[in-house]
Amino acid sequence: MDNQMKITGRILAINDTEQISDTFQKRTFVLTYAEHPQYPEYITFALIQDRCSLIDGFQVGQNVEVSFNLKGRQWQSPEGQTKYFNSLQAWRIEPIAKEGAQSTAQENTAQQAEESAPAPEDDLPF
């Protein structure tokens, strides 16, 4: 079973790296995922060990695509109760260009071309 997944969204929060033990570090960040914009989801991802720095250079509000693995584990409490935990471990983060930025750039180029075109003659017959 392949548990590698991808999701796109906007970075809502970036947390500091936590040193959990002498040999383990973890960093989390939150992505706003809006498949239905009226009902956004807030999804926490974990970066572990040497991947904690993957989020460096990204900013809150930036649109990204996150590649991650879905992880799950079982834990037995001292009282004998079994609990289950899930985590999303990110292993790649890539910036996503806004579609609006591309169309705005195209519109600006078209507008500049119109402005630099010679003015039409006023000797039209009508």
Describe the largest sheet.
6 strands, antiparallel
Order of helices and strands: EEEEEEH
Fraction of residues in H or I helices: 10-25%
Termini, distance in Å? 72 Å
Percent of residues in beta strands: over 45%
* Low-confidence blocks of residues: 101-122
Care to count the β-strands?
6
**Structural class by secondary-structure content:** mainly beta
Q: What is the gyration radius calculated from CA atoms?
A: 24 Å
Oligomer status: single chain
Describe the structure.
With 126 residues, this protein is mainly β. The chain has one helix spanning 99-116; strands at residues 4-14, 18-21, 24-33, 41-48, 63-76, 82-95. Strands 1, 2, 3, 4, 5 and 6 form a six-stranded antiparallel beta sheet that branches. The model is unreliable at 101-122 (pLDDT under 50).
Task: State the main characteristics.
126 residues, mainly beta, 6 strands
Summarize the structure.
The chain contains one helix and six strands. By secondary structure, it is mostly beta strands. Strand 2 (18-21) and strand 3 form a beta hairpin.
Protein topology:
Elements: E1 4-14, E2 18-21, E3 24-33, E4 41-48, E5 63-76, E6 82-95, H1 99-116
Antiparallel strand pairs: 1-3, 1-5, 2-3, 3-4, 5-6
